[in-house]
Design brief:
Helix content: 55-70%
Shape: globular
Structural class: mainly alpha
Oligomer: single chain
Strand content: under 5%
Radius of gyration: 22 Å
Length: 392
Amino acid sequence: MMKPAPSQRHYGMDWLRVGAFVLLIFYHVGFSFTPWGFQTPTRGVVSWAEIPLLGLSAWRLALLFAISGYASAALLKKDGNNRAFLKSRLLRLGIPLLFGLTVVVPPQPYMGLINSGYAHGYGYFLFHDAFSFRKVGYESLPATMHLWFVIYLLVYTLVLCAGLMFLPDAWRTWLRGQAEKLLSGPLMLPLGIVLIFGVRLFYDGWTDIHSLFVDRAAHLHYFGMFLYGFLLRGSEPMRQAIARQWKLALVLGLLGYAWVIGDTLLWPGNTPTPAAWEQPLSFAKSVQCWGTVVALFGIADRYWNFDSKWRPMLVEAVFPIYIAHQTVMVFVSYAIRDMGLTALPEFLTLCITVAGGSWIFYLIGREIGPLRPLIGLKRHRAPRKAAKVAVA
């Protein structure tokens, strides 16, 4: 049995969000050691590194968008109306996005250009090339890098708000009812798998383009996950469906991953999967994706819905750390590239320094009032519980 539906904050979703972003750091660091390619130097390819990363790649972004949809539903209820919710989302996502694109991200393509022979200093790059809307060397500028996620999330939020504001109430009620009926019954698992498989098979495959106007498969997949999370927040039947099926979903997710591992062992690295096996691989990734997301939602609701003194700070830190982490990783990668480290010491060094540097970025930013909105925090810090108790 599930625990009772949360009336306010769902702590399990908070822990799931924190865990997902922690895994994101390991994923991005590990990416440098795979044959898939990255803009930072590395000491060489580790042949088995892609195996654990493939355990995350099919579902990590789908999970983040679903959690974002869930959080959006909670914020909408807290704000009380669509306009207030839209305003708050524009401020909390839009301001950090502009700050990130203009201040945090530009060092990443610059370091990539330096590695390929770019002869100018950072000042020249910033004022002449960084925002030139052209291709310089191998870099298309201006670059969005990892902040594509925030762009997509902001666009999905705008589309959601438009639907909430302009669709007639009867239409919205009918659509919600139909979706809830499908996603709370025995078809929940097969339907999700088939939809993801169809999107990825008939559009751009599993390689996301991260370009807003052409990334069709990603939009259909991730916006669908965003809406699923949004619906889940207010639906007890959907929660109970997860309660009944999350263990089966976990088994399916592991089976899908097993197929992906087998495919990788047969055709490792950048060796293309033969055409006859492309559809089975895509189906396996769809099973892995949907099964893992449903299983993690079930685990979070069943086992992780508890509070801790560390939770508020960790939840607050997630967005600033996300903004900073990849730029920190690029700087550290270039700083240690001539130190003669082997793969394992370099991986550990990157994980520790990226996590630590991003954490310092958050700790400094949260203490400076004008900087807080720039890194995705509220303008003023919430009063501490100890202060409230003292006043009482």
